[in-house]
Amino acid sequence: MTGAGSGPFRVVSDLPLSPEQQARIISAFGGCDLRILDDGADLPRALDQADIAFLAPEVTVETLVERPHLAWVHIDISGTERFAQPELLNGGTLITGSAGRSAPVLAEHALMFMLAHVYQLPSLVAAQQKGVWATEGFAQRRGLFGQCVGIIGLGQTGQETARMAKALNMRVLGFNRSVRKVAHVDTLYCGARGDTLTPLLKQADFVVLCLALTDDTRDLIGAAELKHMKPSACLINMGRGGLIVEEAMIAALETGQLAGAGLDVFQQEPLASDNPLWRAPNVLITPHVTPGMPDRTARTVDIIVDNIARFRRGQPLCNAVGRGVLH
Questions:
Q1: Do 84 and 325 contact (CB within 8 A), yes or no?
Q2: pLDDT-based confidence at 140, cuts 50/70/90?
Q3: Burial readout 7-21 (b: 16 or more C-beta within 10 A, e: otherwise)
């Protein structure tokens, strides 16, 4: 399979690829013309000549549109919503991302929220700063052992969260769009067979959102869904801010209908200083940032190499941006 001309695919990349990773990509293509762009390279000019590009997340939609030969662009970012633009998708260029690359640390992040909630970490830190030996009520708290977590969205992050939760002897419920067996999930609910979120919400001590923002998932958790949750439950969002109706969540927190929340994503980012979430009770906020992984680029290359094989066979690519994704 060849590129626009008579030779092999013309591929450009500004990712920090090692010589071994470059060789792996070239081999996956069965040979290609791979150009690694340095900091001073003219990216638009390079894209004008390229068939395929593997790019850092700083690239803009405007840089990608109207490139005459560009058939596929992989952007090294998990959330690709901002690239779901008609001017890009209607041009015929395939766009993929690196969703799942950081799944283990995203699952750790969700676990951190759960542990912080059961251990009342903010109150412990506040007591320590005051030099107070804070034991009142602590013995009545329950650890994660034996508690129930409901994971909505069983992609790689959801699956990693299930694995870690099961290692702590939690009961794991899952909700997925499709019907498929998922390891470490005790009970699986599936949208494809008509299941609703209600039974998961009613049982879970922790509800963890690990899914993308689409036309179908926007405002997934609103007032009606929050009423199904236990008053002792904690809501954790590792997906996108638009999955939750923030006003309904704030009201539930303030009235005691919801015991707590761990939030890494928000409807508007950065979160405005006057947003009531800052002052809502029992909320732990992180600024949409998760620690890195030592092999992050290697895991990106794994995704790229798998998609190269799919691309050469004419199969659908993993992590493809579709028109159903909201931006």
A1: yes
A2: confident
A3: ebbbbbbbbebeeeb
Q: How far is CA 42 from CA 45, 74, 153, 195, in A?
A: 5, 18, 39, 51
Give the helix/strand (H/E) hosting 168: none
Beta bridge partners of 180: none
Residue 5 has pLDDT above 50, yes or no: no
pLDDT, tens digit (0-9, with 9 covering 90-100), for 11-36: 999 999 999 999 999 999 999 999 99
d(CA 171, CA 149): 6
CB distance 98 to 77 below 8 Å: yes
- List, in order, residues 6 or more apart from 169 with CB less than 8 Å away: 144, 145, 146
Is 103-285 a CATH 3.40.50.720 domain?
A: yes
- Would you list the domain boundaries of the chain? 10-101+294-313, 103-285
Does the pLDDT value for residue 3 go beyond 50?
no
The tokens describing 303, both together, are 């995704």
Identical topology for domains 10-101+294-313 and 103-285: yes
> How high is the pLDDT of residue 2?
42
Tell how strand 10-13 and strand 283-285 pair up.
Answer: unpaired
Percentage of residues in the chain having pLDDT higher than 70:
96
CATH for 10-101+294-313?
Answer: 3.40.50.720
The mean pLDDT of 35-56, rounded to a whole number, is: 92
Residues with Cβ within 8 Å of 209's Cβ and at least 6 positions away in sequence, in order, are 152, 153, 220, 221, 235, 236, 237, 238, 239, 243, 244
Catalytically active residues are 240, 269, 288
Helix residue ranges per DSSP H, the chain: 19-28, 43-49, 61-64, 86-89, 103-118, 121-130, 156-167, 198-203, 223-228, 246-255, 296-313
Section 161-176 average pLDDT: 98
Strand order in the sheet with 94-97: 33-36, 10-13, 52-55, 72-75, 94-97
Whether omega for the bond prior to residue 270 falls within 30 degrees of 0, making it cis, is: yes
User: Average pLDDT of the chain?
Assistant: 92
